[in-house]
Amino acid sequence: MTVTIFLGALLAPMALGVPIAFALIISGVALMMYLDLFDAQIVAQNVLNGADSFPLMAVPFFLLAGEVMNTGGLSRRIVNLAMAMVGHIRGGLGFVAIFAACILSSLSGSAVADAAALGALLYPMMVKSGHDPARTGGLLASASIIGPIIPPSIGFILYGVIGGVSITKLFLAGIVPGLMIAAALCITWLIVARKEQFALPPRQSGAVRFKAFVDSIWALMLPVIIIVGLKFGVFTPTEAGVVAAVYSLFVAMVIYRELPPAKLFGVFVSAAKITSVVMFLVACAAVSAWLVTVADVPGELVSLLEPLMDNQTLLLLAIMALVVVVGTAMDMTPTILIMTPVLIPVIKEAGIDPVYFGVLFIINNSIGLITPPVGTVLNVICGVSKLNMEQLMKGVMPFLIAELIVLLLLILFPQIVTVPVALMGH
Fold it and tell me: What residues contact residue 273 under an 8 Å CB cut-off, 6+ apart?
């Protein structure tokens, strides 16, 4: 009964168009009234405590870094480097998109920021060279979701804070799966683009490639600084966000000089707007998360999943199928905030490593960004490309299937995630 009340009080307001943050508070209040615990002070206290978290300070800084990279020329230089290296091979612009997405993901940690950069820079170029518009948009959308998987990742930060899981371990665990998704996209692109007739960019000389590399070296240094700093304990993931923001500001304003002081205020305002949405969601989710614990919703879920608790693979398949369905109707951040406190006790009861589960969970939520009707990344690419959602979905489908196959492989072979983290000494 508790689960029914929680879901009903959450989904009914959302169906009526109530913003998700307020729907979270309503679901928490509904549970409080059912348990005869209603107290407005408890609601207010949990909202304040929800946002009062040191690790969450990384979110605004990584979001700021992403805004600076797109405005200050770092993203453009990454794309130019990818063009110089692989743009000349057959289907090379598609590989440029995937290659650039991997590098951009190690800079911003945001799929939406990466989608905006890749869409604006590469979509016109790919369509002009003869690539199918829908397929091009589908590839760019699918490549953008590597952003929350390869560290730094805002999704991992939220999951780690709510679930009490090491964010550093999550960051390190996301590297190999992120590269696997990139490889799957490359293979899929080779298959779907082989019959297209398109113009190939000329092969660049060694001098041009070297110049592109030198021009982007300052941008490429950022992921190296973050990964090395986390690996050797120089800074925490929260401090890594500050490093990313300060470093990107320095490079954009002093080295590349493409971010004049006059534009700085607009960049800060844009990052602050996105941060306020994320943090308000986190604060409101704390109310329902506290009530979920008090009402023992995870305990009821464990009882429902009792037949699968002895088989980790079947349990993960069932949970991932549930998350895929939820991802079609809900954005990534609220899905993490709502489902993490419910699922963490379940997977611990089943003996599943929370770090390994976190990687699967964030990949699944990332895939939700390219599933309609809510898919945020789809909406970004639609805006950039002027395609409608139906056209874009046809283009994204082969790549979506490839990413789901990678998720299935990670469920069947958990060593892909756990072994690299163990080798890194964490």
Answer: none
The residue type at 329? A
User: Using one digit for the tens of pLDDT, what is the confidence trace for 215-260?
Assistant: 989 988 888 888 788 777 788 878 888 888 899 999 999 999 999 9
The string of DSSP codes covering 18-75 is --HHHHHHHHHHHHHHHTT---HHHHHHHHHHHH--SGGGHHHHHHHHHHHHHHTTHH
**DSSP letter (8 states) at residue 254:** I
Residue type, 18: V
Q: Identify each DSSP E strand in 81-190 by its residue range.
A: none
Residue 206 to residue 198: CA distance in whole angstroms: 24
- Distance of alpha carbon 367 from alpha carbon 119, whole angstroms: 18
With beta carbons less than 8 A apart as the criterion, state whether 250 and 258 touch: no
Question: What distances in angstroms separate CA 34 from CA 38, 300, 310, one per listed residue?
Answer: 9, 16, 32
List pLDDT tens digits, range 36-82.
Answer: 888 888 888 888 887 777 777 877 888 888 888 878 888 888 888 88
Cα–Cα dist 23/385, whole Å: 32
Q: How far apart are CA 405 and CA 360, in angstroms?
A: 12
Structure tokens at 261: 């002081």
* DSSP 8-state class, residue 204: P
The residue length of the chain stands at 426
Omega before residue 124 within 30° of 0, cis: no
Assess contact for 98 and 105: CB atoms under 8 A.
Answer: no
**Secondary structure element (H or E) that encloses residue 364, with its range:** helix 354-367
Collapsed DSSP state (helix, strand, coil) of residue 152 = coil
Distance CA 273, CA 265 (A): 12
